[in-house]
Amino acid sequence: MPGKVVGGISGVDIIGGQLFIGLRHIKKSLIAGAELVTEENKKRVLSAIRWGAAGGLLLGPLGGVAGLVFGGRTKEVCFALYLTDGRNYLITSDPQTFQAIKAMSFKKRYHNKFE
């Protein structure tokens, strides 16, 4: 799942260029905008341990240390999604999902200007 609504149980997904929040399909015409709130690098401990074990098996102790240090790193963004019907969402996801949603609002707003 590319994203999650903060404080809720709804997942955010883009399937075939269509935005879904939970089971609801959000039409592109409803997207008023998307604004970045925070961006951070996170380290996932279990993933780092797995990378360390794999590095240790393949490359010995030095590979194990490298796997622990460099494994499990992910980038996560938090952004606000504004809809024209007054609904607003705070969503955490990967940067690619944010860019895709931002592009949906950009295309809608500026579509006629580029033709």
Measured between the Cα atoms of the first and last residue, the distance is 34 Å
Biggest β-sheet description: 7 strands, antiparallel
Rg on CA atoms, Å: 18 Å
The number of distinct helices, counting runs of at least 4 residues, comes to: 3
CATH architecture of the domain at 3-42 and 75-110: Roll
CATH topology of the domain at 3-42 and 75-110: PH-domain like
**Which class do the helix and strand fractions yield?**
alpha+beta
Query: Tell me, what's the shape?
Result: elongated
**Full CATH superfamily name of the domain at 3-42 and 75-110:** Pleckstrin-homology domain (PH domain)/Phosphotyrosine-binding domain (PTB)
The strand line-up of the biggest sheet is 4-3-2-1-7-6-5
Question: What is the CATH class name of the domain at 3-42 and 75-110?
Answer: Mainly Beta
Q: Per DSSP, what share of the residues sits in E-state strands of 2 or more residues?
A: 35-45%
